[in-house]
Hints:
Layout: H1 3-9, H2 14-31, E1 42-47, H3 49-66, E2 72-78, H4 82-90, E3 96-104, E4 116-119, E5 129-137, H5 141-151, E6 157-165, E7 178-182, E8 188-189, E9 205-208, H6 210-230
Parallel strand pairs: 2-3, 2-5, 5-6, 6-7
Antiparallel strand pairs: 1-9, 3-4, 8-9
Amino acid sequence: MNPRIFFESGQMPAIIVVTMARCLVTKIDRCNPVPRHWRNEMEKVLSTERQIARRIKTLSSAIERDFSGRELVIVAVLNGTILFLADLIRCLSLPLRLDFVAVSSYGLGTESGELVFTKELRLDVRRRDVLLVDDILDTGRTLHRVLAKVRQLKPRRIKTCVLLEKAARRTEKVRADYVGFSIPDLFVVGYGLDFAERYRNLPFIGVLHSRFYAELSSSAADEIATALNRWK
Length: 232
């Protein structure tokens, strides 16, 4: 059977379509295998170390083009940006200065709580070009709050760069100018992203098994209760 005949006639048999789809899924799974020692906790690898590196080079090229001839102030949101930020700025040849803000939103659980700034900017960004870097644009609450804060400081221009964008959970009208990967509504960890401060050191972005972070939630609650008892 010659598949080309069916492509040209537009009458591809269902069995061939299904077989091709299965082959494609198998190929993707083989390209992004979960490392053996993480298979108990990771459902799958969403972005590999190599895929991340390639995407960062593309992002850095776009940033250099848009800020050509300017000195850039990069404002990174702690702590999830650390790995992404380190790799991104090493790909930039622009003159730049670096500062950080910290906003507490997720805590030890999976639900966003009250947003509190735990670290303020040290550099003066007035009349300067600013690139705000964050790990993930999810509901948009964190980025919306940080953007408002930085805009009050009267920068010349401000653009935003995020490693991941999850549009399905967006509640604020905010968008990123540079996006690494757009992802579905999955609970992802690795490459700086954490759950209960775990998994930040993974070189890839993976999807955490729901059963596992349910167990971790219980464990984290026990740790908090123990810590509070010590201070009573």
